[in-house]
């Protein structure tokens, strides 16, 4: 695009901007076109226009400020004021450390100009005096002081400037500056910030240079006490700050940071406000890069920020400032405008108003300004809060006698809102009908015009033809006006029609007839409902069949797409007329001389009538996705059956499994679908009724917590006790430790999402000193964040160690690469070092860096350092010593309850003996427990009392190595398997290596495997010796 085309496009865009000045995409386009012209004046005009209608970030303000400093007469007080006013405008929009830095630098430069220029104007000297500049710089620094990682940039400028002043100051001025800087240091030490050590050292130097030697020690002790709390506050947030750096200030990370701060019992207002400001700035910047989620995130951050200031009883001036900035930043947010209206209403009614609070704008004027942006009207969810806030204020004014009862005015406002809602959304406010309910209440209770309320609901039900809420509201208003026959007619008419919740219609009708009908009318109602139920059930069955067929088609397509090309058999070659197969490819391959087919690639010819069985490969099964395909159903009637749930959910999609669980005070169920696409439809069953009782349906993961970093001694009862205070616990799922004994996390599932959200308060709570609990909602989309799957990547394996090596020796080496989480020195049964260790870091990057320690000399030996792979090592070496030695300290447990968790079983066994690991064989309801030594195994085998686990009495016997029942002997004439091809399962926990040709083991009986010794046999054996 040449210059003339750019100018023409710019002209057309300006015309469009005059019509839609609040369309942010036009302003972004304006900036790009102005930049394309290469004309600085055009660019600054585009930036200025953008800043007039929206809050803008420092990418827009910094060039404008630079241009203003260049063109303004900074040798005069008026010119300096112009520049300072622009800084004030920029700082009101968003928090920006670069803008604040430039502001401080400008103030310092203006002060230096006045001090060094004897001819400076008197009013300029007054404006830029040392006292005025100190106040101004302190004010600018305070705006960014809550930014705990970057506020030092502002503080350091102030500190260095004041130290420069001290070098040349004398007499009273010097003493005043020392007092001011001392107060500034002490205030800074109490503020959390990243370089608090440097600040403390700087204060130490300041005290040495400007305080008496006798005061030095006491001053530093006092300062150290002052800063201790701030240091701890920063340390608690360092991980959140690190996450922000790692994710490049991702909005999701900011949201998690804010949630963490707000969960605190006493949130730090300074830090939380700064985090909100930083999140808002990050979202505003992403909005300019066409990030689709940035606008919504920006609205939510502003709403949360304004609510926090109000809930925290913040300064009213700060609340008003935040609300005004919010309406400028997101003028299309109805929720922010509604909060602004309510603040103006409260301020106007305050009997003792704050004189410094500027509330010159009325609610009516603010409403007019909000609607003039033409942004609110585009979104139903923004229209409704604005209309309700404006109408609510108007209604309260009428009730208090402060406004005339203008029926036409307030009803006109609400009806206009209803029209806008229906125009902005095809479905409208079908789930709430919030404006309609407000209008109806006004007609009935305020203006005593019930006929108009009836007309309103009649029109609403005609518009929302399939909404049960509209029809039941219509019937309710008729009943309140004693128009029973008309209400009965409405129920009868709608009972057989297709509505979104017919059961609610039928229930309301039946309740109405019981209250106002005769016996004949009640029976007639029941008969019609029965016919309607049959019709609805038939329709739902048809829809379910159709949905099931479509789901089958999609699954088949996905399954076909998942088969690798190599697994698809080639098409059969067509036969020539002479009956000989064409061998074009084979001939070409031989002739070419470069492509040679392997013998195993050529299919063996099959003789006619061959009895060789055809081996057809099974199609790959679709991966089971329980977390995304399962809904959790609660508040069920006590006698609820699986069939009732299957009927309720059958129209949602193919059901894989339903489990109904009876808890002490409630009945719950899990419904797992074959496809995750079925879940949205299943969630619409929330608030439906079974046996007349309203049920709750939600995603199972929404009521599940991922918990880690709890005390190592914690068991199932401990976790249930800690988390049971926040609601009824449905299940606690423990991880298996058969591959990694240090795994310490657990999933806690409540019967309701609200309990899970309440329990998030435990996040960060120290159950033991220095051990802060980590609690998160178990969102499957963030699965990587709630698992120890990367534990091996954070762990290194160190070999070649001297027997004199200690944990402290290893920590001294590896802590130089990052924070060390754990060190495990391998020892044999006698407690002697085995010459290797595992070092686990907090971060994967630190583990990678630690590989540099390979070949490091420690105690006259060269050590080898590699990344750990405990899973492979566990498979290769199930225990210390040989496999037979491992079996000698293992026992087999039979008669396990179905669904036994390895983690829970290991917890129970650890109360009796020292257990290394447990492996459960679910298909056999058996397990093998490997203990620390044969003596520990003997403890289990010689227990005088039986072991009971979850209601089942376990059978304990010596482990022989067989984990499977023997295969039946082959029948005569069966497929011959050569001895050399005999299957050789890998030895390991619960398996033994068999030699080729060995006779198959006998199937295990209920009393134990053949050759196994039970507790009585073991006692007899000991007694003979």
Automatic annotation (TrEMBL):
Q: Where is the composition biased (Low complexity)?
A: 996-1012
Identify one Pfam family in the record: RRM_1
Q: Which GO terms describe its cellular component?
A: U6 snRNP
What InterPro entries does the record point to?
Nucleotide-bd_a/b_plait_sf, Prp24_RRM1, RBD_domain_sf, RRM_dom, SLIRP/GR-RBP-like, TPR-like_helical_dom_sf
Q: Where is this region: Disordered?
A: 592-626, 959-1025
Q: Where in the cell is it found?
A: Nucleus
Which SUPFAM superfamilies does UniProt cross-reference here? RNA-binding domain, RBD, TPR-like
Q: Which UniProt keywords apply?
A: mRNA processing, mRNA splicing, Nucleus, Repeat, RNA-binding
Q: Name one GO biological process term.
A: RNA splicing
GO MF entries = RNA binding
- Organism of derivation: Heliocybe sulcata
| Residues annotated as domain RRM | 629-702, 703-780, 794-870
Regions of biased composition (Basic and acidic residues) lie at 608-626, 1014-1025
State the protein's purpose.
Functions as a recycling factor of the spliceosome, a machinery that forms on each precursor-messenger RNA (pre-mRNA) and catalyzes the removal of introns. Chaperones the re-annealing of U4 and U6 snRNAs (small nuclear RNAs) released from previous rounds of splicing, an initial step in reforming the U4/U6-U5 tri-snRNP (small nuclear ribonucleoprotein) that can reassemble into another spliceosome complex; this step involves binding U6 and facilitating the unwinding of the U6 internal stem loop, followed by base-pairing of U6 to U4.
PROSITE patterns annotated for this entry?
RRM
List the protein's name: U4/U6 snRNA-associated-splicing factor PRP24
Q: What is its main location?
A: nucleus
